[in-house]
Predict the 3D structure of the following.
Amino acid sequence: MRSDGVSETLYRKPGEVSAEPALRRLAYSDLPAVVSIERRSFPAPWSLAMFVLELSKPSGICLAATHGDDLAGYLICSRYDRVWHLMNVAVAPERRRQGIATQLISRLVEEGGGRLPFTLEVRVSNHDAIAMYERLGFRSAGVRPRYYQDNGEDALIMWLD
C-alpha cells in the first residue's frame, strides 16, 4: 500500500459501485476538504499545518472515506514506540450516523492491529463516540483532567489491546 500522499483507492475494484464509502489513504490533495470537515466538527480544530505534519510521518496511518469525489470522513493515527495513537477521526456532519467512522476505525485496526495496542482520548461528554469506541472493543482506562484547552473538559482515555 502507498503512503506517499498519492490518492489511491484501496479495496475497491475499478467501476465497482457501492453505497458504502471507498476507503483509501488520505492524500495532501484531500486537505482542503479535511480542514472543512474539521472546522465543522470540533470546537478547537486542528490547523492545516498539523494535518500536513501527520501526513508526512511515514509510520502513520491516515485514511479517507469517500463517496465519489467527495470526502465523507478521515482518520489520523500515529505510531509511537509500542502503541498506535488514534489522533483524529471525523465525518462530515451531513454524512454522520452512516457507519463511516466505524468503517475507518475497523480498517485502521486491520492495517495496524495484531502487533501493537491502540489508544485514544475522547471528550467525556461525547457519549455517542464513546459508545462507538466501546462497540469496537475499546475500553476505558482513566481520565486526563482538563485535557481540552477550549473549555477545560476532561478526556476519557481508551485502549484497544
